[in-house]
Amino acid sequence: MTLELDRRHLLGAAAAMAGGAALPAFAAGGKAPDRFVRREGMRLMLGDRPYRFAGTNMWYAAWLGADAVYGDRARLGRELDRLAAMGVTNLRICASGEEGPLKGSIKPGFRGPGPHYNQTLLAGLDYALAEMGKRGLRAVLHLTNFWEWSGGMMTYLSYVNGGRYIDAHDPAHPWPAFANFNAQFYGNAKAVALYHAYVRSLVGRVNTVTGTRYADDGTIVAWQLANEPRPAGDLDHADLPRFYAWIDGTARLIKSIDSDHLVCTGSEGLKGCLEQESIVLAEHRFASIDYLTCHIWPNNWDWVKQTDLPGTFARGEELTDDYIARHVSMARQLGKPLVIEEFGYPRDGGSNDPKVATTYKDRFYRRIYDAALDDMRAGGPIAGTNFWAWNGEARAQHADYVFHPGDRQYMGDPPHEPQGWYGVFDGDSTVRLIADHAASIARLPA
Protein backbone atom coordinates (compact mmCIF):
# COMPACT_ATOMS: atom_id res chain seq x y z
CA MET A 1 0.00 0.00 0.00
CA THR A 2 1.36 3.41 -0.97
CA LEU A 3 0.02 6.37 0.94
CA GLU A 4 -1.41 8.85 -1.55
CA LEU A 5 -0.60 12.48 -0.83
CA ASP A 6 -2.95 15.42 -1.07
CA ARG A 7 -0.27 17.89 -0.10
CA ARG A 8 -2.35 20.99 0.62
CA HIS A 9 -4.88 19.14 2.76
CA LEU A 10 -2.53 16.79 4.56
CA LEU A 11 0.25 19.27 5.30
CA GLY A 12 -2.29 21.59 6.85
CA ALA A 13 -3.58 18.77 9.00
CA ALA A 14 -0.06 17.77 9.99
CA ALA A 15 0.77 21.31 11.07
CA ALA A 16 -2.30 21.29 13.29
CA MET A 17 -1.04 18.08 14.90
CA ALA A 18 2.25 19.70 15.93
CA GLY A 19 1.42 20.19 19.57
CA GLY A 20 -2.18 21.00 18.80
CA ALA A 21 -1.46 24.38 17.18
CA ALA A 22 -1.05 25.41 13.56
CA LEU A 23 2.57 26.55 13.39
CA PRO A 24 3.59 26.07 9.75
CA ALA A 25 7.06 27.57 10.01
CA PHE A 26 9.35 27.80 13.05
CA ALA A 27 12.62 29.24 11.86
CA ALA A 28 11.66 32.86 11.16
CA GLY A 29 10.99 35.61 13.66
CA GLY A 30 11.78 36.31 17.29
CA LYS A 31 11.92 34.17 20.42
CA ALA A 32 8.22 34.04 21.30
CA PRO A 33 7.71 31.76 24.32
CA ASP A 34 5.27 29.50 22.44
CA ARG A 35 7.87 28.76 19.78
CA PHE A 36 9.75 26.37 22.05
CA VAL A 37 8.71 23.08 23.58
CA ARG A 38 9.22 23.23 27.34
CA ARG A 39 8.77 20.96 30.33
CA GLU A 40 6.17 21.41 33.04
CA GLY A 41 6.38 18.54 35.48
CA MET A 42 5.58 15.29 33.67
CA ARG A 43 4.37 17.10 30.56
CA LEU A 44 6.01 18.63 27.54
CA MET A 45 4.22 21.84 26.60
CA LEU A 46 3.98 24.09 23.57
CA GLY A 47 2.26 27.33 24.40
CA ASP A 48 -0.72 26.46 26.58
CA ARG A 49 -1.18 22.93 25.20
CA PRO A 50 0.56 19.61 25.87
CA TYR A 51 3.12 18.74 23.22
CA ARG A 52 2.35 15.17 22.17
CA PHE A 53 3.61 13.55 19.01
CA ALA A 54 3.92 10.63 16.69
CA GLY A 55 7.50 10.66 15.46
CA THR A 56 10.19 8.72 13.68
CA ASN A 57 13.94 8.36 13.44
CA MET A 58 15.52 9.69 10.24
CA TRP A 59 19.21 9.78 11.07
CA TYR A 60 20.28 10.53 7.49
CA ALA A 61 18.38 13.83 6.98
CA ALA A 62 21.56 15.96 6.93
CA TRP A 63 23.20 13.69 4.37
CA LEU A 64 20.20 14.00 2.04
CA GLY A 65 20.18 17.76 2.64
CA ALA A 66 23.79 18.24 1.59
CA ASP A 67 24.46 19.99 -1.72
CA ALA A 68 26.96 17.32 -2.69
CA VAL A 69 27.28 14.11 -4.65
CA TYR A 70 26.13 12.15 -1.59
CA GLY A 71 23.06 14.38 -1.07
CA ASP A 72 19.57 14.29 -2.57
CA ARG A 73 17.52 17.34 -1.69
CA ALA A 74 14.65 16.34 -3.95
CA ARG A 75 14.28 13.06 -2.11
CA LEU A 76 14.51 14.80 1.25
CA GLY A 77 11.56 16.97 0.26
CA ARG A 78 9.54 13.96 -0.83
CA GLU A 79 10.27 12.07 2.38
CA LEU A 80 9.35 15.04 4.57
CA ASP A 81 6.12 15.45 2.62
CA ARG A 82 5.28 11.78 3.14
CA LEU A 83 5.94 11.98 6.87
CA ALA A 84 3.95 15.19 7.27
CA ALA A 85 1.07 13.61 5.38
CA MET A 86 1.12 10.70 7.82
CA GLY A 87 0.88 13.12 10.75
CA VAL A 88 4.45 12.47 11.90
CA THR A 89 5.62 15.70 13.53
CA ASN A 90 8.88 14.84 15.33
CA LEU A 91 12.08 13.57 13.70
CA ARG A 92 15.08 12.33 15.64
CA ILE A 93 18.11 12.95 13.43
CA CYS A 94 21.86 12.58 13.57
CA ALA A 95 23.69 15.90 14.01
CA SER A 96 27.13 14.38 14.43
CA GLY A 97 29.41 11.90 12.74
CA GLU A 98 33.05 11.26 13.52
CA GLU A 99 35.18 10.04 10.62
CA GLY A 100 37.65 7.36 11.55
CA PRO A 101 38.71 3.75 11.11
CA LEU A 102 35.61 1.89 12.32
CA LYS A 103 33.96 -0.59 9.99
CA GLY A 104 30.35 0.14 9.18
CA SER A 105 30.50 3.87 9.93
CA ILE A 106 28.87 6.33 7.56
CA LYS A 107 31.06 8.62 5.50
CA PRO A 108 31.48 11.48 5.11
CA GLY A 109 31.23 12.59 8.72
CA PHE A 110 30.70 15.97 10.30
CA ARG A 111 34.23 16.03 11.69
CA GLY A 112 37.65 14.43 11.90
CA PRO A 113 40.25 14.71 14.67
CA GLY A 114 41.00 18.38 14.04
CA PRO A 115 39.14 21.65 14.70
CA HIS A 116 37.72 21.97 11.18
CA TYR A 117 34.29 20.53 10.49
CA ASN A 118 32.57 19.43 7.29
CA GLN A 119 30.77 22.62 6.29
CA THR A 120 28.99 20.93 3.38
CA LEU A 121 27.38 18.36 5.67
CA LEU A 122 26.61 21.01 8.28
CA ALA A 123 24.87 23.01 5.54
CA GLY A 124 22.95 19.82 4.77
CA LEU A 125 21.71 19.83 8.37
CA ASP A 126 20.80 23.52 7.98
CA TYR A 127 18.81 22.71 4.86
CA ALA A 128 17.04 19.75 6.47
CA LEU A 129 15.98 21.86 9.46
CA ALA A 130 14.77 24.64 7.18
CA GLU A 131 12.68 22.20 5.14
CA MET A 132 11.29 20.62 8.29
CA GLY A 133 10.29 24.02 9.59
CA LYS A 134 8.35 24.77 6.43
CA ARG A 135 6.27 21.65 7.03
CA GLY A 136 5.63 22.05 10.74
CA LEU A 137 8.03 19.25 11.69
CA ARG A 138 10.30 19.41 14.73
CA ALA A 139 13.69 17.85 15.42
CA VAL A 140 15.60 16.11 18.19
CA LEU A 141 19.33 16.27 17.42
CA HIS A 142 21.78 13.76 18.87
CA LEU A 143 25.35 14.92 19.31
CA THR A 144 27.43 11.73 19.19
CA ASN A 145 26.89 7.98 19.30
CA PHE A 146 27.81 5.12 21.59
CA TRP A 147 27.74 2.81 18.55
CA GLU A 148 30.02 2.64 15.56
CA TRP A 149 27.68 3.48 12.68
CA SER A 150 28.33 7.22 12.88
CA GLY A 151 31.84 7.02 14.35
CA GLY A 152 30.90 7.97 17.87
CA MET A 153 32.78 7.67 21.13
CA MET A 154 35.15 4.95 19.95
CA THR A 155 36.31 7.25 17.16
CA TYR A 156 36.82 10.12 19.61
CA LEU A 157 39.02 7.82 21.67
CA SER A 158 41.04 6.85 18.59
CA TYR A 159 41.70 10.55 17.95
CA VAL A 160 43.52 10.95 21.27
CA ASN A 161 44.99 7.54 22.18
CA GLY A 162 47.35 6.96 19.29
CA GLY A 163 44.75 5.36 17.04
CA ARG A 164 43.69 2.42 19.23
CA TYR A 165 40.14 1.15 18.80
CA ILE A 166 37.92 -1.94 18.74
CA ASP A 167 35.43 -2.67 16.00
CA ALA A 168 31.99 -3.75 17.12
CA HIS A 169 31.19 -7.41 16.37
CA ASP A 170 34.89 -8.24 16.04
CA PRO A 171 35.27 -11.98 16.86
CA ALA A 172 38.65 -11.20 18.41
CA HIS A 173 36.91 -8.88 20.91
CA PRO A 174 33.52 -10.43 21.75
CA TRP A 175 30.83 -8.58 23.68
CA PRO A 176 31.13 -6.68 25.96
CA ALA A 177 34.67 -5.66 24.93
CA PHE A 178 33.46 -2.91 22.57
CA ALA A 179 31.16 -1.33 25.15
CA ASN A 180 33.73 -1.56 27.94
CA PHE A 181 36.43 0.05 25.78
CA ASN A 182 33.96 2.75 24.75
CA ALA A 183 33.23 3.61 28.38
CA GLN A 184 36.75 5.03 28.66
CA PHE A 185 35.39 8.02 26.72
CA TYR A 186 33.58 9.56 29.72
CA GLY A 187 36.80 9.85 31.75
CA ASN A 188 39.13 10.81 28.89
CA ALA A 189 39.54 14.57 29.20
CA LYS A 190 41.02 14.98 25.72
CA ALA A 191 38.25 13.01 23.99
CA VAL A 192 35.52 14.83 25.91
CA ALA A 193 37.15 18.18 25.11
CA LEU A 194 36.98 17.42 21.38
CA TYR A 195 33.34 16.41 21.74
CA HIS A 196 32.51 19.52 23.77
CA ALA A 197 34.17 21.73 21.16
CA TYR A 198 31.85 20.27 18.54
CA VAL A 199 28.85 20.69 20.85
CA ARG A 200 29.69 24.37 21.36
CA SER A 201 30.05 24.91 17.64
CA LEU A 202 26.78 23.21 16.71
CA VAL A 203 24.58 24.56 19.49
CA GLY A 204 25.90 28.07 18.77
CA ARG A 205 25.59 27.67 15.00
CA VAL A 206 23.69 30.04 12.69
CA ASN A 207 21.62 28.24 10.05
CA THR A 208 23.05 29.21 6.65
CA VAL A 209 19.65 28.77 4.98
CA THR A 210 17.39 30.67 7.38
CA GLY A 211 19.89 32.97 9.11
CA THR A 212 18.50 31.84 12.47
CA ARG A 213 20.69 30.71 15.34
CA TYR A 214 20.02 27.10 16.26
CA ALA A 215 19.50 28.32 19.82
CA ASP A 216 16.64 30.52 18.55
CA ASP A 217 15.07 27.97 16.20
CA GLY A 218 11.73 26.57 17.28
CA THR A 219 12.13 23.71 14.80
CA ILE A 220 14.44 22.10 17.35
CA VAL A 221 12.76 20.41 20.31
CA ALA A 222 15.80 19.06 22.12
CA TRP A 223 19.51 18.42 22.13
CA GLN A 224 20.45 14.85 22.91
CA LEU A 225 23.82 14.05 24.46
CA ALA A 226 24.31 10.90 22.40
CA ASN A 227 22.57 8.01 20.76
CA GLU A 228 22.25 5.31 23.44
CA PRO A 229 25.04 6.27 25.84
CA ARG A 230 25.85 3.34 28.14
CA PRO A 231 28.04 3.52 31.24
CA ALA A 232 29.84 0.34 30.07
CA GLY A 233 29.14 -3.18 28.86
CA ASP A 234 29.06 -4.59 32.40
CA LEU A 235 29.03 -3.27 35.95
CA ASP A 236 32.67 -4.16 36.59
CA HIS A 237 33.77 -1.64 33.95
CA ALA A 238 31.25 1.09 34.76
CA ASP A 239 32.73 4.19 36.36
CA LEU A 240 29.39 5.66 37.33
CA PRO A 241 30.63 8.93 38.88
CA ARG A 242 32.45 9.78 35.65
CA PHE A 243 29.44 8.75 33.56
CA TYR A 244 27.10 10.93 35.59
CA ALA A 245 29.57 13.82 35.53
CA TRP A 246 29.69 13.62 31.73
CA ILE A 247 25.90 13.70 31.54
CA ASP A 248 25.38 16.68 33.83
CA GLY A 249 28.47 18.53 32.62
CA THR A 250 27.48 18.25 28.95
CA ALA A 251 23.85 19.13 29.61
CA ARG A 252 24.91 22.21 31.58
CA LEU A 253 27.26 23.20 28.78
CA ILE A 254 24.43 23.05 26.26
CA LYS A 255 22.11 25.07 28.49
CA SER A 256 24.80 27.70 29.01
CA ILE A 257 24.70 28.34 25.25
CA ASP A 258 21.01 27.65 24.64
CA SER A 259 18.61 28.17 27.53
CA ASP A 260 15.42 27.68 25.50
CA HIS A 261 15.71 24.12 24.24
CA LEU A 262 15.28 20.86 26.12
CA VAL A 263 18.15 18.47 26.81
CA CYS A 264 17.89 14.69 27.15
CA THR A 265 20.31 11.79 27.37
CA GLY A 266 19.32 9.54 24.45
CA SER A 267 19.41 6.54 26.79
CA GLU A 268 17.83 3.17 25.99
CA GLY A 269 16.61 3.07 29.56
CA LEU A 270 17.06 -0.13 31.52
CA LYS A 271 18.82 -2.07 28.77
CA GLY A 272 21.32 0.74 28.37
CA CYS A 273 21.77 1.03 32.13
CA LEU A 274 22.89 -2.54 32.80
CA GLU A 275 19.32 -3.44 33.88
CA GLN A 276 19.67 -1.21 36.95
CA GLU A 277 16.75 1.07 37.79
CA SER A 278 19.09 2.99 40.08
CA ILE A 279 21.24 3.99 37.09
CA VAL A 280 18.22 5.07 35.01
CA LEU A 281 17.01 7.22 37.90
CA ALA A 282 20.44 8.68 38.60
CA GLU A 283 21.24 9.66 35.01
CA HIS A 284 17.87 11.41 34.63
CA ARG A 285 17.70 13.01 38.07
CA PHE A 286 19.80 16.04 37.14
CA ALA A 287 17.94 19.34 36.76
CA SER A 288 19.83 19.75 33.49
CA ILE A 289 18.04 16.72 31.98
CA ASP A 290 14.47 17.51 31.00
CA TYR A 291 12.93 14.14 30.15
CA LEU A 292 13.52 10.40 30.04
CA THR A 293 13.92 8.25 26.97
CA CYS A 294 13.56 4.53 26.42
CA HIS A 295 14.19 2.21 23.47
CA ILE A 296 12.59 -1.19 22.81
CA TRP A 297 14.26 -3.88 20.67
CA PRO A 298 12.64 -7.30 21.24
CA ASN A 299 14.58 -9.11 18.52
CA ASN A 300 17.97 -7.65 19.46
CA TRP A 301 17.35 -8.51 23.11
CA ASP A 302 16.25 -12.11 22.41
CA TRP A 303 12.72 -11.48 23.59
CA VAL A 304 11.56 -12.86 20.22
CA LYS A 305 13.22 -14.78 17.41
CA GLN A 306 12.75 -13.31 13.97
CA THR A 307 12.84 -16.81 12.43
CA ASP A 308 9.90 -17.83 14.65
CA LEU A 309 7.76 -14.77 15.28
CA PRO A 310 4.51 -16.79 15.52
CA GLY A 311 6.00 -18.89 18.32
CA THR A 312 7.77 -16.12 20.24
CA PHE A 313 5.64 -13.03 19.72
CA ALA A 314 3.53 -13.51 22.86
CA ARG A 315 6.58 -13.56 25.11
CA GLY A 316 7.81 -10.38 23.42
CA GLU A 317 4.46 -8.72 24.10
CA GLU A 318 4.66 -9.48 27.82
CA LEU A 319 8.21 -8.19 28.11
CA THR A 320 7.39 -5.07 26.08
CA ASP A 321 4.41 -4.27 28.29
CA ASP A 322 6.54 -4.70 31.40
CA TYR A 323 9.38 -2.59 29.98
CA ILE A 324 7.05 0.31 29.21
CA ALA A 325 5.36 0.07 32.61
CA ARG A 326 8.69 0.15 34.45
CA HIS A 327 9.80 3.26 32.58
CA VAL A 328 6.48 4.98 33.18
CA SER A 329 6.94 4.22 36.89
CA MET A 330 10.44 5.69 36.89
CA ALA A 331 9.27 8.79 35.03
CA ARG A 332 6.57 9.26 37.66
CA GLN A 333 9.16 8.90 40.42
CA LEU A 334 11.23 11.65 38.81
CA GLY A 335 8.24 13.79 37.85
CA LYS A 336 9.49 14.08 34.26
CA PRO A 337 8.10 13.23 30.82
CA LEU A 338 8.99 10.04 28.95
CA VAL A 339 9.51 9.53 25.22
CA ILE A 340 9.60 6.05 23.65
CA GLU A 341 12.05 7.26 21.07
CA GLU A 342 13.21 4.02 19.43
CA PHE A 343 11.35 0.81 18.82
CA GLY A 344 12.03 -1.65 16.05
CA TYR A 345 10.77 -5.00 14.86
CA PRO A 346 11.59 -7.27 11.90
CA ARG A 347 9.40 -8.14 8.96
CA ASP A 348 7.81 -11.57 8.81
CA GLY A 349 10.48 -14.28 8.85
CA GLY A 350 13.19 -11.72 9.49
CA SER A 351 13.19 -10.72 5.81
CA ASN A 352 14.79 -7.49 4.55
CA ASP A 353 12.63 -7.48 1.40
CA PRO A 354 9.99 -4.70 1.29
CA LYS A 355 7.68 -7.07 -0.60
CA VAL A 356 7.41 -9.29 2.50
CA ALA A 357 4.52 -8.66 4.92
CA THR A 358 4.82 -6.90 8.29
CA THR A 359 2.16 -8.85 10.18
CA TYR A 360 3.99 -9.10 13.51
CA LYS A 361 5.74 -5.77 13.17
CA ASP A 362 2.36 -4.08 12.87
CA ARG A 363 1.11 -5.91 15.96
CA PHE A 364 4.19 -4.73 17.87
CA TYR A 365 3.73 -1.11 16.73
CA ARG A 366 0.07 -1.26 17.73
CA ARG A 367 1.12 -2.53 21.18
CA ILE A 368 3.45 0.45 21.66
CA TYR A 369 0.92 2.94 20.32
CA ASP A 370 -1.94 1.64 22.47
CA ALA A 371 0.23 1.84 25.60
CA ALA A 372 1.31 5.39 24.74
CA LEU A 373 -2.24 6.57 24.04
CA ASP A 374 -3.60 4.99 27.21
CA ASP A 375 -0.93 6.76 29.24
CA MET A 376 -1.56 10.09 27.51
CA ARG A 377 -5.30 9.83 28.16
CA ALA A 378 -4.59 9.09 31.82
CA GLY A 379 -2.37 12.18 32.17
CA GLY A 380 0.78 10.09 32.46
CA PRO A 381 4.33 11.00 31.50
CA ILE A 382 4.49 9.58 27.93
CA ALA A 383 4.77 12.52 25.54
CA GLY A 384 5.54 10.82 22.25
CA THR A 385 6.81 7.90 20.21
CA ASN A 386 9.54 7.69 17.56
CA PHE A 387 9.54 4.46 15.57
CA TRP A 388 12.84 3.17 14.17
CA ALA A 389 13.00 4.12 11.44
CA TRP A 390 11.87 5.74 8.19
CA ASN A 391 13.14 4.06 5.00
CA GLY A 392 10.65 5.80 2.74
CA GLU A 393 11.31 5.33 -0.96
CA ALA A 394 14.83 3.93 -0.51
CA ARG A 395 15.55 0.39 -1.58
CA ALA A 396 18.63 -1.75 -0.97
CA GLN A 397 21.17 -1.34 -3.76
CA HIS A 398 22.51 -4.90 -3.48
CA ALA A 399 20.94 -8.35 -3.45
CA ASP A 400 22.63 -9.18 -0.13
CA TYR A 401 21.05 -6.13 1.57
CA VAL A 402 24.50 -4.96 2.72
CA PHE A 403 25.37 -1.26 2.67
CA HIS A 404 28.57 -0.72 0.69
CA PRO A 405 30.82 2.36 0.89
CA GLY A 406 29.53 4.93 -1.56
CA ASP A 407 25.89 3.78 -1.48
CA ARG A 408 23.39 6.64 -1.54
CA GLN A 409 20.07 4.91 -0.86
CA TYR A 410 20.09 5.91 2.80
CA MET A 411 17.62 4.09 5.01
CA GLY A 412 16.63 4.15 8.63
CA ASP A 413 18.64 0.94 8.90
CA PRO A 414 22.17 2.31 9.49
CA PRO A 415 25.11 1.20 7.33
CA HIS A 416 26.26 -1.51 9.75
CA GLU A 417 22.91 -3.34 9.58
CA PRO A 418 21.00 -5.20 6.84
CA GLN A 419 19.24 -2.67 4.65
CA GLY A 420 15.52 -3.15 5.24
CA TRP A 421 15.78 -5.02 8.53
CA TYR A 422 13.76 -2.71 10.76
CA GLY A 423 12.91 0.37 8.70
CA VAL A 424 9.46 1.30 7.41
CA PHE A 425 9.12 1.60 3.63
CA ASP A 426 6.64 3.92 1.94
CA GLY A 427 4.56 0.97 0.73
CA ASP A 428 4.27 -0.87 4.05
CA SER A 429 0.95 -1.47 5.77
CA THR A 430 2.68 0.03 8.82
CA VAL A 431 2.28 3.47 7.21
CA ARG A 432 -1.47 3.47 7.76
CA LEU A 433 -1.00 2.29 11.34
CA ILE A 434 1.35 5.20 12.03
CA ALA A 435 -1.04 7.67 10.42
CA ASP A 436 -3.93 6.37 12.53
CA HIS A 437 -1.81 6.72 15.67
CA ALA A 438 -0.92 10.30 14.77
CA ALA A 439 -4.57 11.11 14.19
CA SER A 440 -5.49 9.61 17.57
CA ILE A 441 -2.92 11.81 19.29
CA ALA A 442 -4.25 14.87 17.49
CA ARG A 443 -7.72 14.15 18.82
CA LEU A 444 -6.64 14.02 22.46
CA PRO A 445 -8.02 16.84 24.59
CA ALA A 446 -5.64 19.38 26.05
From TrEMBL:
It comes from Sphingomonas gellani. The keyword Transferase does not apply. The keyword Signal applies. It comes from the Bacteria. One of its GO terms (biological process) is carbohydrate metabolic process. Its EC number is 3.2.1.78. This is mannan endo-1,4-beta-mannosidase. It catalyses: Random hydrolysis of (1->4)-beta-D-mannosidic linkages in mannans, galactomannans and glucomannans.
